[in-house]
Predict the structure.
Amino acid sequence: MSAPTHAPAPLHVPAPSAFPVSPGSGPTAAELLAFALRTAADPAVVDSLPLDPEGRTWIRLDGPGGSEAWLIGWPPGTGTGWHDHAESRGAFATARGRLTEHSLSVRLPSEGWQSLELADGVDRTRALTAGTGRDFGEHHVHEVRNESGTEHAVSVHAYYPPLPLIRRYSRNGPVLTLEQVERPADWQ
């Protein structure tokens, strides 16, 4: 996550009652999605997020089974840019508004490249309205945007294992270029 224009003081908000988690390997992507959907439906948790009209805001949540979870506010027109979550699987659910996810349906090499030309047909787009979400596996490359010109969006995100890093990319037509690698200290 890139730094918001105005970050609220860190808060730890307890999430709704925990979900059973698969023993031994942490929560599955489906279990993370169930957590994100349930948390996104909890008005007390969603209302705890201070919203900023200029930049994204977030607070950390208690995720299931040792996962990392976040409640994120998206002012109109904001987004993440292209990125992945390295070896973490994850899920997110929209609590308010509508988010659009652009993703790639191809697994990229995890190391050893700076720029790749993508084949035709790898782009996917999905709209996620309030009460909907999606899960994903490791090395999932995507960007998430609030494309509304007027409405704030709020979403819940969960990752396991907790994010070791985020790789950020730029995109020029079919060419995807690795631009930056962020570590947890960069966004916490």
